[in-house]
Amino acid sequence: MILALGQALAGVVVTVDGVGGPVTQSQRLMLQSTLDRVGVFYTSALGVRLPDPLPMHVVVYLDREAFEGHRSRAGAPGWSEGWFRTTAAGPEAVLWGGDGMRAIFLHEASHHLLAHAGRSPRWLNEGLAQVMETARVSGNALTVTTPPRYGQILAQVGRPTVDAILTNPSTWTDLPADQAGPLYVQGWALTALLLGSAEGQATVRAVLAGDGSPASTRAAIESTYPGGMTALETRYARWRPDASFVLPTPIQAKPAANDALWIRCADGRLVARSVGCR
Ligand SMILES: [Zn+2]
Asked: Yes or no: is domain 12-272 CATH 3.90.930?
């Protein structure tokens, strides 16, 4: 059942298994809190309607050989350090537990959460994932920053008009983070510009309420962004890629569910501990 949520998401429920070694408590808390905070932002600021509770299972590989074996069996690209899939038991992330784990998790989790918004434009879907990659959780907010190399890439590849970004039919393909292509950085820049202001966030919300087509996106910008496409074109052309801003993630009245309250049964079901696996 999909519930319409108000100011807060009641429960992103993350369960974690380690393969080839133990997952530390701080890693568990990091996965739980980052997904929860991004979910709350998407719900409260961007109007994404998420299932409640939203269970997510994470398998963290600590053994490189075992991870690579799983990756090739899963058919994931050889550079991929993590991915999401939907199993019979629900959504599952498979991650290499190395240095880049948090960024990979945030990028893929963003796609996963946004899928609940229906069809969204590709530039915005990838742009949000790129922005969220940099997020740091701090209490009731996400702080996002601009990776210096994004500024450098944008300076090299230039920026098309907003109109060209909306209508670009190019194929988007996920690439290793250090090879992020021009499209990703241009989409990231437009997304970061929008997320950095209340009226821009309202515009993203209006775009996500549409059908993802260029016409629907253009109509959402015209009706929601002050000054419409003309003003956004001007601001995007002048925007300096040095965004650092704080996105509010209201603390919910209900305590967040956590893996102390939920258990995964041997048959893969996720159930409340009080109910048990019987
Ligand atoms: Zn992506």
From this structure: no
